[in-house]
Amino acid sequence: MATDRKLRILLGTRKGTYILEGDAKRKKWKVGAPAHEGSDVYHVVADPRHPGDLYAAVNNGFWGPMIQRSRNWGKKWTEIATPLTPSGKDRQPAFNDEDPTTPVKRPLNNLWHIEPSLASEPKTIYLGADPHLLFRSEDLGSSWEPIPAINEHPGREKWSPGAGGACLHTIIVDPRDANRLYIGLSAVGTFRSEDRGESWVPVNKGVETPFLPEKFPETGQCVHHVSIDAADPDTFYRQDHGGIYVSHDSMSKWVRIGKPLGDDFGFCVTSPTGAPGTAYFVRLDGMARVTGEGHLQVWQWNDRSKKWKKLLKPTDFPGHFGVQREGIASDALDPPGVYVGTTTGQLFWTPDAGKTWDMVPFQFPGIHSVSVSSPPSK
Amino acid sequence: MLEVRLDSWLREFGPRGTEKLDAASVEQLLDALEAKYPRLRFKLRDETGQIRRYVRVFVDGQDVSESTGVGTSLADVRTVDILHSIAGG
Is B4 on the interface with A (CB under 8 A)? Predict the structure, then answer.
């Protein structure tokens, strides 16, 4: 499928997948027909290595989880392989590989995040799933290999789920080195691998767990989402249950930056490719889990000036909005566009790094995830 | 020969309407259906082999989904209905 000049917003919702088409001006959007109607779609993502290829993490309430792929920007979708747990290599074996008479112990629950790897390994894709599972495909999703160092981690018996389940929801590949991976799991925390997933170390130092007796354990943090800085791949921005944090040393230690906001609870974060050194968060009330003070609040962190900027006035979008962990995304243009999808189906966006905002005039089902496929730079 | 009546929603995965099959148990029946329609695999059962939470299997009118489940004998049974349950919102 040829590259085109369109900018696409990809939405995973409670009732299917939606794709909005626009262009670099980011003024008008054409909402396409839904796909996967009736299914919870937790994540939809474009593979920039193969223009036109999209992947969707479809979780059907009746028929279970399945990965669907489109090769033509969402015009047609096809179910592809979905991995088994804990050690199945593809969808063929119905039983435990090691003992065919024993059914596997844990059914695969919801699929959470699909992450295409770097251009240097053009057929590699990662998948995060519930319960606390990580898989890799080397053939664009035709088959999947489990990552045993996570899926059979000796500590996993003590890993707790978050309210959304035992989800592995964040996967980041270091853009300089495909061997260095980062993952985030609820409510376990973040891990880093230097050897393409063969081994992992927990990297949660400095992140508080106000919901546990121990204040700073090695694991047990309820990380909600993490975004990598485009210009400095050692810098990460983290929205945790316990607040907002930044790391400048590949997650080796974290520093809380959210305290000036008062309540720095939230689920989502994005750091735009077109604006390195900044990150955008949607601030929620930590008790109600909706936007505090009765209006949509998007905050911009400037990591150079170390200052926060509130981007919306109380009168802009009044209401109590929920925004989930994949509910914010940014494009790769300069100035960056930022897109926020809510659990009540509104999609807000700014085309100019937060100076002006608007709402797409279409009522979507509750939005689980937002991602963007940006047009190539001229 | 059993008559198996299948949920119309399952058309997405291959089967349409009614099938005639020989099977001694619900497990064998599901195996036979999945062999005929490979895309049904893991839609009615998860990979542990258990019937999915919101799939209902009726054997001569009796819901066995959460009782005898896949182990239900189909001896002397005439009809099996496979439906999705009333759920969701």
Answer: no
